[in-house]
Amino acid sequence: MTARSAKFGDVVRGAVARRGAALMGICNVTPDSFSDGGRFFEPHDAASRIDELIAEGADIIDIGGESTRPGSKPVSAKEQLARVLPAIEHAARRGACVSIDTMSPHVAAAALDAGAHAINDVSLLHDEELARVASGSGAALILSHARPAVGMRPALHEYGDVVADVLVDWERAAARAALLGVPRSSLIMDPGLGFSKAARHSLELLRRARVLVDKMGDVPVLFGASRKSFLTLIDKGAEAADRDGASIAAAVHAVHAGVHILRVHSLRATRQAIDLDNVLGTPRRKI
Known about the structure:
This protein is of the alpha/beta class. It contains 10 helices and 8 strands.
């Protein structure tokens, strides 16, 4: 394990010991993200968002310059870098642990040079060059499960047992990453809630989070349920900003299942819920 992935791992382990899970705060430097597009697009707004997340107790700051919402248009590496580099540099000056949310190897490399510690790849290594970048820099690599789009409908994939299928796909990507020099100790597993999945698939993955954690063994597991559209299964028609209650309940459930990292929008509220749950002493899975 190298310096970057070691720091990322130390941050996660410290947060798990202290709270039960590390909190990854989201900073979308985009005009069109599904939940907060445009709010943090300007450099000073992104910097203020990072300061807010740190003040609220974020263990990791996840910074991205390209929306992954359904129907969003690809953003060039040049434009992504113009968006994210000022934010990453600000976060690095604040001493934050940073992940770069990108599918571009060029963006990932530049972000790591600017002070990021991890690559958050939501394509499940569609471009293997991302693994080479992670290997060469010693960064942690978050592999988020996804399958290629089916025409214009990315959620039309069929799964047998969605948990088993996600694990098989993820392990194949991890094996490819290993061949390209990324050790398993530098990997993080994300089941990719909302990516190439119908709502029922994402809900089932959340419901069976403990199975994923148990199967992954010593590989940390990350869940990003926050404000995702599958949460409308319990509140039909709720807009993204109105899904915080379900998002927080999902986060507490994930902590009880042993999930190591939670990617969240409402960081303070999520931290409060988990911290109160700890004070109340609700039984949870031992890690």
